[in-house]
Structures
1.
Amino acid sequence: MKGIHVTSEIGKLKKVCLHRPGDELLNLPPDELERLLFDDVPFLEVAQAEHDRFAEILREQGTEVLYLEQLVAEAFKAHPGAREEFLNEYIEEAGIKGQAMPAIVRDYLNSIEDDFEFVKKTMAGVAKSEIDLPHASSATLDDMVSAHSDKESDLIIDPMPNLYFTRDPFACVGNGVSLNRMYAVTRNRETLYGKYIFKYHPEYADTPLWFQRDAASHIEGGDILNLSNKALAVGISQRTQAAAIDILAQNIFWKTEGCEIEKIFAFDIPNCRAFMHLDTVFTQIDVDKFTIHPAIMGTLRVFELTKGATPGEVDIKEHTDSLEKILEYATGVDGIKLIPCGGGDPIAAAREQWNDGSNTLCVEPGTIVVYQRNNVTNDVLYKEGLNLLVMPSAELSRGRGGPRCMSMPFQREDL
Ligand SMILES: NC(=O)NCCC[C@H](N)C(=O)O
């Protein structure tokens, strides 16, 4: 089957998009970690081995694994001119200082003939040591200072270390995609890759977009959960603004064709790094089960958005029932059970949520990929009868994301 098809969080996973961590993790300057939204410098070789095991686990379940970098290279191959268009946009958004420097870096990147290597290089970033820096006669003062001053970074273009969290820059909903505008500049550049896949890739070029990367407000895929073909949950979080959910609702209900979603449930979660997205505190693992970080219970407000009666109108109401009841109403399934991360121990819950104990990837109802390190939560899940596919996680978890964050389903079987 061609194209995108995702109508739940749990239907059998047929195709998924990953990104194998690459040289972008070698270009991570330790004193820039906060700005780049990363928490440590991982050991690349081990991170890649862990990631390869993740991909292998998915293939063992019959899932086709697609790689973001490969899809972009295929889009360039299929459409002459796409690579040049991408490069122009990439250079414009790369934050390169000086007037002479952008053209120099552009030529340098363009000299990489192989599309796949070219794409990976744009992801890795560019260091000053790689190119001939401009000299006084051919450059502005800004070029000179940024190229040669010790006070400046050793990098001309930042790496994109968060790319292996393919969940966030775009999100598949039904047969379309929310091409996101991200909270931070460092991650907004990642959405360019999705833009070119959904514009030029032979299998995905006609995908409708429910959100555009130049929107006025930000939304990230970790906040978008497909509860059913008719219902979406979206977090209001550090990364997703309520105003972005208004835009999404307008697009889905009124401005675009082909989306089956009739109800959007907005979950207002605390605004902090540990809970950056809804999927860091809440993921669906079976028809009637969700994992949840207990710390969000009690503070959570849930709003329901539906199509209004007159063009452009969206009706909004707040739900005051328990979360279980709201989820029963939203999914149409009775007897919803919430399984707390950390098994009820607040210290274990906080520790394991920090390492994404609530961030599971469901490959079919009741079968989930989890990080090995979250043993307290994993024990609880075993006892609840879940089938756990356990993956190594010492290095990948340093980026603050788990199996759901590291995957973007392109196709799931309908339930
Ligand atoms: N869906 C997710 O929760 N993704 C994890 C993203 C982690 C990344 N370091 C970030 O801060 O954006």
Note: DSSP finds twelve helices and 19 strands in the chain.
2.
Amino acid sequence: MQILSAEQIREWDAYTIAHEPVASVDLMERAAEACAEWIEKKGWLHFDYSVYCGKGNNGGDGLAIARMLSQRGCKITVHILEFGHKGTDDFQVNLERLHECNVPIVFIQDNGFHPTPKGNIIIDALFGSGLNRPLEGIVADLVDFMNNSGNKIVSIDIPSGLFTDKSSKGNTVVKAAHTLSFQVYKTAFVMAENGQYTGQIEILDIGLHKDYLEQHKGAFFQMTDETFIRSIYKKRTSFSHKGNFGHALLMAGSYGKMGAAVMAAKACLRSGVGLLTVHLPKCGVDIMQTSTHEAMVSIDKDEHCIISIPDDISKYNVIGVGPGIGLENETKSLLPAILQLKKPLVIDADALNIIAENKALLQQLPAQTILTPHPKEFDRLFGESPNDFVRMEKAQHAASKHNCVIVLKGHNTFMAAPGAKGFFNNTGNPGMATGGSGDVLTGIITGLLAQKYSALNAAILGVYLHGLSADMALQFNSFETLLPSDIIKYLYRGFKSIITEKKE
Ligand SMILES: NC(=O)C1=CN([C@@H]2O[C@H](COP(=O)(O)OP(=O)(O)OC[C@H]3O[C@@H](n4cnc5c(N)ncnc54)[C@H](O)[C@@H]3O)[C@@H](O)[C@H]2O)[C@@H](O)CC1
Ligand SMILES: Nc1ncnc2c1ncn2[C@@H]1O[C@H](COP(=O)(O)OP(=O)(O)O)[C@@H](O)[C@H]1O
Ligand SMILES: [K+]
């Protein structure tokens, strides 16, 4: 699924109006009908509704939804923000239509807001993608009033006060339980800082013209959904042998952090790598050999941390470095040498922190290196960002500048690569917020890279499978009990769901 900006959505609406063709007010009718149907399917027709409308097209949606719910037998009160100016054409048409339904309308002109009866559902149709400045004055007071009412709020298209394409940090924004949005995701929905506002997001199909997306391919962020993932997954043939799937080298672990190496190794093996060697300090050998029988080990000369590169590096086709390596000076000194090997590379955790301390190393990354920072590691590498939008733009910029793939981890992990607009992931859950989940991801991506996925596809597929397997593990876990090892255990379910032919 694509993720569009407010401007792109406006263009797409206009394209549909011109090319379907369909009248703008009929498109609004479709949008409202989709919302009313969603409410009906939810079994919510026995509730009463307070519908809050601005006078733009978002408000127009609200009026049409009010009419449709009233026709379905719901008791409705409509509240319209009234500052004396006329509404948009489609708003005015819907106001006239609503008058015919005898729905009571309250005009809001000051702070004397009517209390919302307990149990009413609030429909928030104050502002949509046309928001052009933060809410203030009476409007901000109204939104505070709605948020504090204790009523469930359903926002239409986007919670009012939330900007589609830039940060709304510190602004007054509706806190919705559900957001009913049209056709595609909006950029605001994938930013962690907005998670508190959108609630559960439902994307409703309003039949916008498919040709628009075709004609502007490459201009949109992409949500890596199942269809997209299936298109990049490489099926194995019956005659495959281990030589087809690469020999990965993982450089991981230090005294007290050997678990990171074990988890990365197991995840790498469970992702289909042909052969795996783990380069470890001496203290980790027994741990690895007894816990992970399929992995070979290469033993560093140091007892506690890795300070050297294994012999005969030519046999490895990829390297994953970072999980649990620590920040000892000798390990730090090793990193430039690893970069100089010019192998396909995945860099995570302390290896990222070492680069952050010596940013000149960024210039030495082999082409198409994959970096997997969480936001703090990212900020150490590329400087602090005031909000998630700026951090994402920095990731795009850094990926182009250093010719690398950046996996900026989070709830909707963002992947940036040169020449691509960017990809957001939509699998995963808060059960993954336990130390070690990142090590598992490094193992998975390293395993896929060894199997000759391109760097970008290894990142996209790895992040998707990582989250999906964690989602599958929830069948027998709560968020609290889910462990990174469970992600590895359920990787087979993740893979199977991609491989299994979909029943239509
Ligand atoms: N044909 C279409 O274009 C469709 C549009 N739809 C709806 O239309 C919405 C966009 O409508 P509009 O472009 O009319 O925009 P909005 O309804 O979001 O509101 C824009 C109006 O609010 C004012 N405004 C913006 N920020 C303000 C602020 N902080 N305080 C006070 N006033 C402010 C603007 O000056 C403008 O008058 C979408 O979100 C969606 O709900 C849907 O009906 C689907 C079809
Ligand atoms: N709420 C969440 N939703 C989806 N994915 C999550 C969530 N919390 C954590 N994750 C994922 O778990 C991983 C955590 O990685 P990281 O922060 O490096 O942890 P660690 O270094 O402790 O292993 C990332 O891939 C991240 O995307
Ligand atoms: K809204």
Note: Residues 222 and 423 are 5 Å apart (CA to CA).
3.
Amino acid sequence: MTETLLSVRDLKVSYQVGKGSIDAVDGASFDVPRGSIVGLVGESGCGKTTVARALTRVIADNASITGGQILFDGQDIAALPEREMNALRWRDIAFIPQSAMNSLDPVYTVEYQLNEVLRRRGGLGRRQARARCEELFEMVGIEAGRLGDYPHQFSGGMRQRVAIALALALNPKLVIADEPVTALDVIVQRQILDQLRDLQSMLGISVILVTHDISVVAYVCDRTVVMYAGRIAEAGPMDAVLMEPSHPYTMGLRNAFPDLKGAASGVLTPIEGAPPNLAFPPPGCRFAPRCPFAVETCTTQQPALGMAAPDHRVSCHRADEAAKLRQEAARTETWLADV
Ligand SMILES: Nc1ncnc2c1ncn2[C@@H]1O[C@H](COP(=O)(O)OP(=O)(O)OP(=O)(O)O)[C@@H](O)[C@H]1O
């Protein structure tokens, strides 16, 4: 069995807003096996970025981790003193924030920015750092001659490659990439994802890929964690979750996105409505107000994250009926009725 690198257990993250608080992540549990790409997927606002940032403990000033464990290599980093956590960042866990433009400083050359990580954090000397910069650029397919360029001199796709090089600088075990291909055209998306996959398997690292786009997960991930309104809806091997989803939200997401591989994917059916306001989440299953299959229990009782199969978890009161619901979910009318 594959060894687990990261194990998130019942993670809770809240934002303080005025006198109240928003439970943006409300009991998330999932695993990241060594040497795998795990897609963290869900609509905007469902808590993906909050989870990703909590894993590096670079969270907003008004955010706090209010519960749970983040076991990285067996150590609970949710409880680690900031000094030790800081030593772990870049070296063990690297984070690529949502826009590569944000992660790169426009006023410095990319070599300067790579050097900041390599020399300041990695302790490399000038010569070693230069050699590593060249190696990193080669790894991400950019000529070393462009190391002295500024971020604006690169195209969007190339900036994303630079951000990947930066993340890989100190040989981390885990790279967390937040929406790494959003805003790029489909051809460039594929190139970046292919490269991420090649580097992941060459270096044997693990990657958490945060995305709202389930076709990105289908294209490149080994496993999928589907989030909805701060909770895990479904998690497991990519094929099991996307080919035979057990949660109606995953069934709906699958209908709502085109296929990145370019195959004919038929009619796209959006999930009507929007995720709930997390300041006032509905009782019971948070997806119930939009779910075409919701029954009374769904509106009153929160479903537990149970087993759909030994390695496949799902949080749905009707998970036992998944095969039947999948057939109904494949029909566009199912998603137009009831909501
Ligand atoms: N600094 C903040 N203060 C208050 N609420 C916040 C803050 N940051 C995020 N939130 C709220 O937390 C919830 C989760 O947001 P988060 O950004 O993690 O979701 P997401 O799935 O990553 O969405 P997106 O892809 O749009 O970033 C949302 O309801 C959002 O409004």
Note: The pocket of adenosine-5'-triphosphate is lined by residues 15, 17, 22, 24, 42, 44-50, 60, 62, 212, 278 (CB under 6 Å).
